[in-house]
């Protein structure tokens, strides 16, 4: 039995990383160099998967981290422990990003706790596989857009007054925006919106010294897919269609977020990085 065939399948999103086998690899691969020293980062979906790996790496580079998540409290607390083990402060905030009031309240608590916001990582998202467009219910369509793009707008609106020159916003789009996905019509549509949002927001904010970029991961082993975000048939061969022939790990994606968050990318805005296993997307 292959590793992908041995992956467990849960029934409800977003899914518990603590129950996932094999465990995603979140650990930073290198010692820190202080590239985010003294900064505060807000990371959505930071309880697990890519968000956890980004939180761990940002903390290693010196940032305090606000962990925004939906309802996986055990996973979120584990991420907070990882951040604190790196010598940084962590704050966990549970709620629905699709609700504007939650976004406003969360940002107020973050500023009260840390006094500043320097980096916003809009990473959270949800997906639901459907083989036929007529199978997508109105409720699902609204929910996917509410989480993936409305929530990104709401949180960015709440954070904007606190961002100063040299701040950075990094949005998580997807390879599905560039390739399409016959099973993820609503999800891939939101990712197209996120890419357009990234480029437009960059034009809007770059004059104020705030950079906006995005990361477009390929198939990454996180709780999202085995928790209902991919069909069993697709999950059995997850990542095999990439040139590298395997799914990626969260800690293979996190360095793209770090690069876009720190001064290493000071001459980049409105751009998208593609940690996707070698797939050429010309985007």
UniProtKB/TrEMBL annotation:
Its domain of life reads Bacteria
Entry-linked SUPFAM superfamilies: NAD(P)-binding Rossmann-fold domains
Q: Which Pfam families match?
A: adh_short_C2
**Keywords from the UniProt entry:** Oxidoreductase
Could you tell me which Gene3D superfamilies the record lists for this protein?
NAD(P)-binding Rossmann-like Domain (3.40.50.720)
Q: Per the record, what are the reactions this protein catalyses?
A: 2,5-dichlorocyclohexa-2,5-dien-1,4-diol + NAD(+) = 2,5-dichlorohydroquinone + NADH + H(+)
**Where are the annotated segments for Disordered?**
1-34
Alphabetical list of InterPro entries matching this protein = NAD(P)-bd_dom_sf (IPR036291), Sc_DH/Rdtase_CS (IPR020904), SDR_fam (IPR002347)
- UniProt similarity note: Belongs to the short-chain dehydrogenases/reductases (SDR) family.
- Protein name (Swiss-Prot/TrEMBL): Short-chain dehydrogenase
Q: Which organism is it from?
A: Sphingobium chungbukense
